[in-house]
Amino acid sequence: MKYSTSPTPSRSNSSLLGMSSRTTSPLPPPASYRTDCMSATNKSYKYLRRFVKFDQMDFEYALWQMLYLFIAPKKVYRNFNYRKQTKSQFARDDPAFLVLLVGCLCVTSIGFAWVLSLGIGQSILFLLYVVFVDCILCGMIVATMLWVVSNRYLREQISDMDVEWGYAFDVHLNAFFPPLVLLHFIQLFFYHPLISHEWFISTFIGNTIWLAALGYYIYITFLGYNVVPGLRNTRIILVALPLVFFFYVVTIIMRWNLSVSLMYFYHYRVL
Q1: Short-list 89, 59, 67, 73, CA closest to 217
Q2: In the predicted model, is pLDDT for residue 263 greater than 50?
Q3: For residue 30, which phi and psi values (nearest 5 degrees)?
Q4: Least-confidence region, from 37-41, 87-91, 192-196, 261-265
Q5: Which of 5, 27, 74, 210 is spaced 20 to 30 Å from 187 by Cα?
Q6: Closest to 223 (Cα-Cα) out of 240, 209, 238, 211
Q7: Cβ of 65: how many Cβ atoms within 10 Å?
């Protein structure tokens, strides 16, 4: 290479050099720019392979997401848009969030086992149910249903970019975390001294926690699909909110304590 001894480049060469410098711009490419469109199988393999590489997981960023899912969930989905621009996919390529979520389930399951007076074997069975059935299996079912509905009925044009199944599952995990903290952690501190009684205030507090948990799940799910370009009428997801509130009012009138029912369900499921 003899660039240092060559004469001043001509006008055409300067244009070529300018084009070359623009191609190495540090700015993120637009959303339509796709340099490494991997198949769903390759994306899944890359995601699963990182489960055994803890040193490559960004746990600090995952903790930041968990915090902001409570105080400002829109900021979390703004970062999903950044991932689409830089990595050509909405779905997470880092399983750190799921690992931390499972860790939270393990911790809260110990609290549940203590509240329900479960033995060691029952506690392990309870943990397996919560992680693999309540979180992962039910999440896969919900994610698949919303994935089909969004791609089949909410897309503006048939040629628009479709919603990734992995992203639909990520939306479920995001929406699952606040209800997990409310129902599996905060509620435990009030269950025996207050919620487990037959008082009206017990039913009111227990069912209000349920209302907040379901409200979080629906709203965060709506935000997840609302940020995807090409989807329309995503506000239909919010229709579930007044239905949940109506159900909440009915349970208050009937004096049906949902928290106590949840405890009975969890207890008899592991017997």
Answers
A1: 73
A2: yes
A3: -65, 170
A4: 37-41
A5: 74
A6: 238
A7: 22
Residue 20 lies in a domain: no
How many domains does the chain fold into?
A: 1
Q: What is the pTM of this model?
A: 0.80
**pLDDT single digits (tens) 33-48:** 344 445 555 555 565 5
In a domain, 48, yes or no: no
CB neighbourhood size of 67 (10 A): 12
Query: Does a structural domain hold residue 61?
Result: yes
Range of the domain at 119: 54-269
- As a whole number of angstroms, the distance between CA 225 and CA 235 comes to 9
Reported as a pLDDT band with limits 50, 70 and 90, residue 186 is very high
Residue 143 Cα distances to 25, 108, 150, 158, 224, angstroms: 37, 24, 10, 21, 11
259 within a domain of the structure (yes/no) = yes
Quick: pLDDT tens for 235-249: 999 999 999 999 999
Per-position DSSP letters for 102-169, written without gaps between them: HHHHHHHHHHHHHHTT--HHHHHHHHHIIIIIIIIIHHHHHHHHHHHHHHHHSBSSTTSPPPPHHHHH
DSSP 5: T
d(CA 158, CA 161): 8
d(CA 163, CA 38) in angstroms, rounded, equals 15
Q: Which residues pair with 155 in a beta bridge?
A: 231
The answer on pLDDT for 54 being more than 80 is no
Q: What span, in angstroms and rounded, lies between the C-alpha atoms of 131 and 173?
A: 12
Backbone angles phi, psi at 231, to 5 degrees: -95, 140
